[in-house]
Amino acid sequence: MTVVRLASETDFAGWREAARSLRAGGVAPEAAFWTVDGAADLFGEAAPAPHARSGGGDAPPFTVPREFMEVAGAVILHRSDERFALLYRLLWRLQGEPNLMRIASDRDVATARNLAKQVSRAAHKMKAFVRFRLTADAEGEAYVAWFEPAHRVTELTAPFFARRFATMRWSILTPDVCAHWDTQGLTFTPGADAADAPSEDSLEEFWRTYYASIFNPARLNTAQMQKEMPKRYWRNLPEAALIPELIARAEATTDAMVAQAPSEPQRRVSRLPKREAIPEGVVATSLEEIASAIQTCRRCDLYMCATQGVAGEGPKTARLMFVGEQPGDQEDLAGQPFVGPAGQVLDRALAEAGVPRAETYVTNAVKHFKHELRGKRRLHRTPDTGEVTACRWWLDQERGLVRPRVVVALGATAALSVLGKATPVSKFRQQALQLPDQSQGVVTYHPSYLLRLPDADAKAKAYALFVEDLRFAWRLAA
Ligand code: URA
């Protein structure tokens, strides 16, 4: 048995050096035992020096896939005792199975990815739940927090706190390691005890007031709440003391809210220019009229949270029309369809297929950006059938004016809008589907789907099919 003794629980550099040396020396995973300096010594006096050097000195260097290094860097921070051995087993297997990291069903790969995910979640929770308390020392005000991370993520998250609280002197004490920021640099000292941290200060009241004011009783979902704010973090959160009472009062508070008079609409909404929507049953006479009238659309609620409605773009004479799902974050801000990351994929594929975008009309099934807020980010949400149906009125107006020969539905939502029923893309692609207005429908993938595919091979294949579909549609429209 070769024993490897790492300098600390998070000694990734030490693990890498030792693992490289073991692998080059032909030490099989079953023959390696991983431990950490200071851990109980099963091997008594016989324990070897810090890093195993089993004759790998002259062995040729080798490379490992980037995915492995990314996963390994996270897994090392997990509290699992098996992590060093698991990573070495993966490294060993990568010699004969270079694509191993892409096999999601492999037990070792799945375990490693799962551990990495738990570490990432622990880092996220640490960023959300550290609460500083104000103290003072010889140099003036300082902020101190006590935190017990689920995994060893203090060193990983410390730069985040340094950026966020750059002008404060602060320390985050944890049982594993303590991070300190003096407004210039980060330092780390050994783990501490909860008793080393201040227990109460004036900021407690601030946290409680803030939390009580953002708590929305009408949206209470205790299961989801505990998922987002697991109980293990409650004891160090000043605001957690309020939770049981806020939950108990939620129903009565919601009833009182419902009984209240409705409030004024948001300023942003009431500032919208007063333009006439095209009345039901009336046919728009120009694309400009549609673009303007979309800004006053109230056919569903999506206008409330979007910056603006996004109409289609392109010449009225276009023979080919592309219909996407809905504007994304960037389209919502720019007021133009397909200008963000999905638009870039579309542009590239159009260029490869020899289709000039400027000669096509590009629009969406739904004209407002449906999203949810996650911190400062606006995360896309798929429009539901009601929203797609409500917005089809606008698409029909656009189709009526442009009268394209071919309408290409990009993805399932667009297919639902254009064809009026759920249409599996893979089954119906490369077919000319007759539409009631005498145009032809073609379905293909949505560019965002191509962006999301995790596997490089699958991505390349799907992209090639996408280009083929664009070519097919362009020929059909000729
Ligand atoms: N995705 C879409 O479906 N449409 C856009 O305009 C942008 C992204």
What is the CATH C-level name of the largest domain?
Answer: Alpha Beta
Q: Strand count, sense and closure of the main sheet?
A: 5 strands, mixed
Heteromolecules bound? uracil
Rg computed from alpha carbons, rounded to a whole number of angstroms:
29 Å
Backbone structural class: alpha/beta
The helix count comes to 17
Q: What proportion of the residues is helical, as a percent range?
A: 40-55%
Name the CATH architecture of the largest domain.
Answer: 3-Layer(aba) Sandwich
In terms of DSSP E residues, the strand content is 5-15%
Let me know the CATH homologous superfamily of the largest domain.
Uracil-DNA glycosylase-like domain
Strand line-up in the sheet with most strands? 3-4-5-6-7
CA distance, first residue to last residue: 72 Å
User: Can you count the beta strands?
Assistant: 14
Dominant shape: flat
Give unreliable regions as ranges.
43-56, 265-274
Nearest-integer average pLDDT: 87
* CATH-defined topology of the largest domain: Uracil-DNA Glycosylase, subunit E
Number of domains: 4
Give a structural overview.
- This protein has helices at 12-24, 66-75, 83-93, 107-129, 154-164, 203-214, 222-228, 243-259, 267-270, 287-293, 329-334, 341-353, 385-402, 412-419, 425-428, 447-452, 456-477, and strands at 2-6, 32-36, 133-137, 140-146, 170-173, 177-181, 186-190, 320-324, 360-364, 371-374, 377-380, 406-410, 433-434, 440-444.
- It is of the alpha/beta class and 478 residues long.
- It folds into four domains: 2-124, no CATH class; 130-196, no CATH class; 213-255, no CATH class; 267-477, 3-Layer(aba) Sandwich (Uracil-DNA Glycosylase, subunit E), CATH 3.40.470.
- A five-stranded mixed sheet has the order 3-4-5-6-7, with helices on one face.
- Strand 1, helix 1 and strand 2 form a beta-alpha-beta unit.
- Helix 4 runs parallel beside helix 5, helix 12 crosses helix 17 and helix 13 packs across helix 14.
- The chain is flat, with a radius of gyration of 29 Å.
- Mean pLDDT is 87; it is low at 43-56 and 265-274.
- Uracil binds next to helix 12.
